[in-house]
Amino acid sequence: MVFCFSLNISQDYGRFFERLRSNIPHRLLYIDIEIRYVSSLVPETTLETFNQSVSARCDVFLSEENARNIIRSLVADSGATQEFVDAVLVPDILSYARYADSLPMNLGRQVIRLRVELLVELDHEDAIGELVDESSANSVNFKPASKSSIKALKRVKYLDNEYEEYLPLKKRRKLGEDLSSRKRCTVCLDEFSDGDKVTSTPCNHVYHYSCIVEWLKTSHLCPLCRYQMPID
């Protein structure tokens, strides 16, 4: 498949996640990516669009290995090859993230939000048809979870290994297999401490209650597995 591309990375100065300022112990990097596929024959026409977002602690993301793993996960369903991700997306996004993190204007900013826009122009119509068919099967519209599904989340106090006692047997078994989701919150990336108010989603992943509530107000997808919560 022959293609050409243009990549634009910028900082978004919106107030997203400002409500979480008092609940986030670390500075966060929040990345929005949009990949737009167009035909070389009719570049004004968008054939397929991929949108995804991810958050990570700044100090965790700002290393090549961590950035590579996070970005690979971010674009896993986009159709981008691993070679392209490693050769283009990882170095360019990481370089800009380091630059943004070093800016004096961002020193007191709790959340740095980056906008990544990738335009891919494909050469062959047959390849485009295959790409659209595959990516359409994986595409999901990002919408807030329903208020009732958020309200249904139950808060409990985290007490290390005793947390599982609050859960049904099926969820306890699942959590035993997924220690990473039990030990830290994937939204703020901080480890749980005794007494923290936590909750588990229907897909059995555990988060700080306040963190996942704010997340679900923006996206109905589980941050870990993309389980789809009900929407209005």
From TrEMBL:
Protein name from the UniProt record: RING-type E3 ubiquitin transferase
Catalytic activities: S-ubiquitinyl-[E2 ubiquitin-conjugating enzyme]-L-cysteine + [acceptor protein]-L-lysine = [E2 ubiquitin-conjugating enzyme]-L-cysteine + N(6)-ubiquitinyl-[acceptor protein]-L-lysine
Transmembrane segments: none
Enzyme class: transferase
UniProt keyword list: Metal-binding, Zinc, Zinc-finger
Highest rank taxon of the organism: Eukaryota
Limits of the RING-type domain: 185-226
Cross-referenced PANTHER family: E3 UBIQUITIN-PROTEIN LIGASE PRAJA (PTHR15710), RING-H2 FINGER PROTEIN ATL21B (PTHR15710:SF77)
Enzyme Commission designation: 2.3.2.27
Pfam families, alphabetized: zf-RING_2
